[in-house]
Amino acid sequence: MRTKEEVAKLGEIDPELAEWLKNNPVPKGNWDNIKEFRAMRDEMGKQSLAALGPAAPHVEESFQNITMRDGFESQIKIHKPTGKTGGPLIVLVFGGGFVVGDNQQLTPYSRGLARAFDAVVVNTAYRLAPENKFPTAAHDTEDTLLWIAKNAESLGADPSKGFILGGVSAG
After folding, report:
1. Residue 64's domain is classified under what CATH number?
2. Where does the Alpha/beta hydrolase fold-3 domain start and stop, copy by copy (predicted)?
3. Do 125 and 137 form a contact (C-beta atoms < 8 A)?
4. What does the alpha-carbon distance between residue 84 and residue 46 come to, in Å, rounded to a whole number?
5. Does 13 share its domain with 96?
6. Measured distance CA(111)–CA(56) in Å, rounded
7. What is the per-residue pLDDT across 11-32, written as a single tens digit (0 to 9) for each?
8. 128: which DSSP letter?
C-alpha cells in the first residue's frame, strides 16, 4: 500500500511534460461554441496535414463520393500501396464526439497502415451533430461500410486477406 506522500507525489506534473505544455499551450478559443471549436479544430488539422506533407511515393491517395440512403453525397478517402492490389482492407472512422472531425483526421495512421501491411485503408465520413440529428451519423457509417464491402475489389482490396474496422472516440 502507498503512503499519503507517495499518493500526493503522483499528482505532480513530470518536468518534461511541464516543459512541453509551456511550449505547446492549449489553443485559445471558445470551446463551448461549436462553430468556433470546429474552426479551431479544422485549422489545427490543416496545420498537421501541411506538416505531414504529401503521401510518400509508395502510397496513393484518392477520394470517392458515395451516396447515402437519403441521397446525400458523402466522401471517403482511400489510401493504398502504389502499384499493388489484393491486400487486406482497413476501414477507419474518425472521432470527435459526432460534432467535429472529418475524413482527413486519420491520414497519418492510414498512410502508415497502407505501407506497413500493403493494405487498402479507407477513411470514412459522416454528417456531424447537432445539425444532423441521431441516427444520421450511424446511418452514414453503416451505408459507407456496406458500400465499401460491395466495392472492396474495385478499391483494390481483398477482405479475405484481412478486414479491420477501427476508429477513435465517436468512430
Report:
1. 3.40.50.1820
2. 91-171
3. no
4. 29
5. no
6. 8
7. 889 999 889 888 887 777 777 8
8. P
